[in-house]
Amino acid sequence: MLILMASPRWSYEAIGPGCHLHPFDVTIKSDRHGTCRGTHVVQACVGYCESSAFPSKYSVLLASSFKHNITSVSQCCTISKMQKIKVRLHCGAIRHEEIEIFTAKSCQCDMCRLSRY
Which residue numbers delimit the CTCK domain (predicted)? Predict the structure, then answer.
């Protein structure tokens, strides 16, 4: 079992328009006791993407029996490419383990999804 704990390195006031890579610290523990642990900086996708809402076309109103009277169009900031990175876990003074985790490599505004990966 691995436990990931994330610490963002940004403030929301500093994030400008668009969808950008931003670093954050990850602490990885092999178990709840932290028998083996390590930290690494990984990239996240953070930012703002375009969205809009407008009255639905008459054809949409007819097709929905006049229940769908507002049409919304939106995109979300998401990871477009990922890469694996190796993190070294320290298990006491002598023993080490190495694991692979994912980090964002590039970001883009794309269709909003509950979970992409």
Answer: 19-113
Contact 56, 68 (CB under 8 A): yes
Q: Is 106 helix (H, G, I), strand (E, B) or coil?
A: strand
What lies within 8 Å, CB to CB, of 65 at 6+ separation is: none
Rounded Cα gap, residues 74 and 48, in angstroms: 11
Question: What is the band of 5 on the pLDDT scale with cuts at 50, 70, 90?
Answer: low
Q: What distance in Å separates the CA atoms of residue 42 and residue 117, rounded to the nearest whole number?
A: 16
Q: Tokens 């229940």 sit at which residue?
A: 67
pLDDT at 3 over 60: no
Q: Print burial letters for 62-74: b (CB count within 10 Å at least 16), e (below 16).
A: eeeeeeeeeeeee
- Measured CA to CA, the distance from residue 32 to residue 111 in angstroms comes to 36
